[in-house]
Specification:
Number of helices of chain B: 2
Number of strands of chain B: 12
Helix content of chain B: 10-25%
CATH architecture of chain B: Sandwich
Shape of chain A: elongated
Radius of gyration of chain A: 25 Å
Number of domains of chain A: 2
CATH class of chain B: Mainly Beta
CATH superfamily of the largest domain in chain A: Immunoglobulins
Structural class of chain B: mainly beta
Largest interface: A-B, 14 and 8 residues
Strand content of chain A: 25-35%
Strand order of the largest sheet of chain A: 1-9-8-5-6
Order of helices and strands of chain A: HEEEEEEHHEEE
Strand content of chain B: over 45%
Distance between the termini of chain B: 89 Å
Oligomer: heterodimer
CATH topology of the largest domain in chain A: Immunoglobulin-like
Radius of gyration of chain B: 23 Å
CATH topology of chain B: Immunoglobulin-like
Structural class of chain A: alpha+beta
Chain lengths: 192, 186
Amino acid sequence: MAIDREHKKRLFALASLPVLVVVAVLINAARNIDDYRHRIEADISKSDAALDYAGATWSLSQIRLIGDGRDTEVRFPGEMRLIIVRLSATAIEQIGEGWGQCEVGLVDGTGRRWLPLDVVLSHDISRDLAPADEPLDGCGITSLNPPAPGATTIVEEKFVVPESAVASLSLRLSVGPLRPAAIAFPLGLDHS
Amino acid sequence: MRHVMRILAIVFAALVLAALQSTTPPYAMLTGPIRTAGHQSDTVASATLSLAIEDISNARTIEYEHFGKAMKLETSGVWVVIDARLQAFRQTMPIRAATLVGASGRCYRQSERAAGAPDSLAAKTLQPGLPTTGIFIFELPEDETTDMTLVVSEQYDPQLQDEVSVKLDPLVAAPQDQLDLGLNGD
């Protein structure tokens, strides 16, 4: 009788192995999927006005298109254009580290994505355009020192884009803790 | 008889496990680069970038001006300067990794001695919709230039990212004594 019980225990232990392997794979897959979701922007809120996101109310405060000779006299070769975007963010709660891994990009209708210029080049351009003014920081640097509740900060990012894409561009912003949620503002630039 | 069956079962299980282990692809292969290959006369395009070779030069000495300072770089081997045209399709991307695989199979990364050369692609960032031209500069033994392949990717040792390689025509002409790359930083 005791031998029969021991035999059943061994069979049960053996039969549980495939189940445990499947459970382990599923748990690992779920973790990977969760990690992946925090790296993509899939749930996008779009508006022409203001949007609440990551403890602040965000809106576009200025857009400049440079390179075709209209905003400034500068003319860039071929299709190359420079877009400077300023975002206004008014904190509605304590942000703390809530803006960590902030990502900003311009996206066109086909899904192409343009990332901001690096800090050094961005500040060089700012000094060329307005020598008397202190260059504004981008989203990454601002995330280290976000505004206090009720205060407003301006975030500036610069992008190099082809002229043919200008009309369909939207600015997209997301932060690490809230991804895949993101916000988007159509730039509404008419390059004609 | 029961013991024999048990031993056979253990041996069978060991064989199955050994077979599984020996046929499992290594992790580095599973997560390695997504390769696209072509020839020098083609524009080689992957899902995220394309590469076209416009010209190749080789020289004993390269010269250029860097922030007003004349630079003259000599080598006991040969400088290989590749003019290329790159385009990103989906997203802004730097091209930090360019490797020249020589005739012996050895890999040569871009020369850091010539990092300040004008129009260097290592210092540029590709923007979708804006094709970019520039040069890759390599320093390698002359006997390596009989059979070369240029391998380009966003970063070295890419994982699940595109890697474009172009088989280059053998360099038949003898290296120039000097190659002037022009100005930079002005």
